[in-house]
Write a structure and sequence with these properties.
Helix content is about 45%, strand content about 10%. It is mainly alpha-helical and about 210 residues long. The termini are far apart.
Amino acid sequence: MVPPLRLSWRRLLIAVRMLIVVTVLCGLLYPLAVAGVAGVFFSRQARGSLVDAQGRPVGSALLGQAFTDAQGAPLRQYFQPRPSAAGLAPGYDAMSSGASNLGPTNPELSTLIARRREAVAAFDGVPPQQVPPDAVTASGSGLDPDISPAYALEQADRVAAARGLDPGAVRALVLAHVRGRALGVLGEPRVNVLELNLALDGGAGR
């Protein structure tokens, strides 16, 4: 019969060895293997899906950003993203991702949406009833990089006028940047704002 003390030490040593093995496998080898596979087959995604312009990164295709001047006013020559509640105005602070936490029955939310609708309608030169929902509501993360095709098309005339372009050519550019539903059924059609604006800066739509 093995003495109880010796049996306890055996079990302790087994537990320690298992801890070391599992730590090496799950805490070192597995992460290194995943990082290696990602670096080889998904290098762009592994780097944060960065988007380059003129040889330097200007943003990420996965994170929204504001297109404003030094005073924080939206730039007329660029398509604008949906509102963001992530951080201080104009939002899109990746360190403060989140929503406003205002519920649908909160009168403060209704007032905010009405104010945004008036501002967007005036900025884009359209009737308030033409402003789509994503133009006046923030996403759950506050970092959504996409807008609906309806919101992008609503902005097309304003962007075309600011850049001296043909409105029809700008609308065609918007439609060329529409992405369909994932796997044909998930989500909604969308337009990546950063990629669309970079296409304009690159001379598209002329």
